[in-house]
Design a protein that fits this description.
Blueprint lengths: L1 H9 L30 E4 L5 H10 L6 E7 L6 E6 L18 H7 L4 H18 L5 E12 L2 E10 L6 E8 L5 E3 L2
Parallel strand pairs: 1-2
Antiparallel strand pairs: 2-3, 4-5, 5-6, 6-7
């Protein structure tokens, strides 16, 4: 029975194929966290009140989402999604997480020579600043560098919030202008 139920819940009529919707079904119930970046748009139902739409938009502001309102096609029972304007387009960018760090402490753990610390300190800071708001990162615990054909590969290790996996690594290269860019 559970197998049949999961198939029914996870299956949608082919008429709605254009939505390219992905359904997630969980055995657990209640509230749970997901990576906010997984949500790219919200479709509001045909009969949804304007006040409800505004409330949801306010709660989701700053995430760069697309919003759609379902409209009934004339002389048909079909619905068409119509893009609607975000009511909070000027909202500050949503930040789910801010991880504080001490670069000197992180470099001590990374077995870096004094020369490597001096050479790569600012690059490590630039790299960490680009990922410190990642919603999955709880804290950073190590930075280190390895070399491939003499080219440095900066590595940053972090503990994750969910604990599955328990750690995450980020890798960066340095371009010809000294700017770092993520390679993983």
């Amino acid at each position: 029975m559970t197998s049949i139920l999961k198939k029914c819940i996870g299956t949608k009529s082919k008429v709605w194929k254009y939505e390219e919707e992905i359904r997630l079904a969980f055995d657990a119930h209640g509230l749970f966290d997901i990576d906010y970046r997984a949500i790219t748009g919200i479709y509001f139902g045909y009969r949804m009140e304007e006040s409800e739409i505004e409330y949801i938009m306010e709660q989701m502001k700053g995430r760069g989402l697309s919003y759609y309102k379902m409209e009934l096609d004339k002389n048909s029972y079909r619905f068409t999604p119509v893009k609607i304007k975000d009511k909070f387009p000027e909202a500050d960018k949503y930040v789910a997480n801010v991880v504080d760090y001490n670069i000197d402490d992180l470099m001590i753990c990374g077995m870096l020579s004094d020369d490597e610390k001096a050479l790569h300190r600012e690059s490590f800071i630039q790299a960490i600043e680009s990922i410190k708001n990642d919603p999955n990162v709880e804290s950073f615990y190590l930075v280190t560098v390895s070399y491939e054909d003499g080219i440095p590969l900066l590595k940053i290790f972090a503990y994750t919030i969910a604990g599955v996996p328990p750690v995450k690594s980020f890798q960066f290269r340095i371009d010809g202008n000294g700017a770092v860019y993520q390679v993983d």
